[in-house]
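Marked as duplicate of an earlier ticket. Keeping the data here for the record.
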Amino acid sequence: MSAADNYKKQLGQEIANLFDSDFKFYKSKLELKRKRAGGFDVIVLSGSHKWSPNIDVSFYFGRNFDVARKIEKALSVN
């Protein structure tokens, strides 16, 4: 694992610590999630460091709905 990957995992855990205890950090996906009615609030850490000495970290905020996920899975089977 690269130093950049380790940095993003440490950053994600620090962010989770700053939020209330509802958010859980998932190192394998580099995302924070908290359960809400009908789905999850999601914060995704996405970054690039390939071929560069710099680390670019982007944050994506959104909502993940259980019902939409079920529909998406049903449609992907066909």
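See parent ticket for discussion. The CA atoms of residues 25 and 69 lie 20 Å apart.
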